[in-house]
Amino acid sequence: MTTEEAARVRPGHPAERDEQDERNGQEGRDEPDEQDEQGGQEYDVFARLCPSRDVFAELADKWSMLILMSLLGCGPQRFSELQRGVGGVSRKMLTQSLRNLERSGLVLRTVFPETPPRVVYDLLPLGRELAELLAPVGRWAEHRAGRMVVAREEFDAAHGED
Question: How many degrees, rounded to 5, is the angle at CA 61 between CA 124 and CA 48?
Fold first, then answer.
């Protein structure tokens, strides 16, 4: 089920109203249900063009959540420590992910004026808040991975997939 389909089964959900408004030529007239913490713009991750959907997609990439959880669990780290801690991430992808997390206000990059320069990455308050929410998801994945592997194998066997 896609997120848009999920939104359709939630009566009165803002994304559902967006579709109805488009059909009725009244796009954007209803106010969304939730406001940003700052009291400004209102966001809805189920709405097709909402900026929160981009934020959600960026965080759901292959490395961002692992980087945030590593910084939460191990504290401030240098680039090489993060790369070792997040097994399998290339230098290029770690650099790109850290830059995106820094740009989004989740990670702080501090350069110490030493020779050679020492660079340390740490969580900002927003990043710490998110990492604390992600940590239980990571633990859930660790505890349930065996069941999911078995389910995938059974599915593949039943559907003739490799």
Answer: 100
Q: Which pLDDT tens digit goes with each residue over 85-140?
A: 999 999 999 999 999 999 999 999 999 999 999 999 999 999 999 999 999 999 99
pTM value is: 0.73
Residues 6+ positions from 107 with CB-CB distance below 8 Å: 67, 68, 71, 98, 101, 121, 122, 123, 124, 127
Q: Give the pLDDT confidence score for residue 10 in this predicted structure.
A: 37
- Cβ neighbourhood burial of 106 (10 Å; 0-12, 13-18, 19+): buried
Distance of CA 84 to the CA centre of its chain: 21
User: Could you tell me the two tokens for 76?
Assistant: 């401030």
The pLDDT of residue 3 is above 80: no
Q: What are residue 50's phi and psi, to 5 degrees?
A: -75, 135
Residues 6+ apart with CB under 8 A from 122: 71, 75, 76, 77, 107, 108, 110
Q: Specify whether the CB–CB gap between 113 and 97 falls below 8 A.
A: no
Angstrom distances, CA of residue 22 to CA of 30, 49, 117, 126:
11, 13, 54, 34
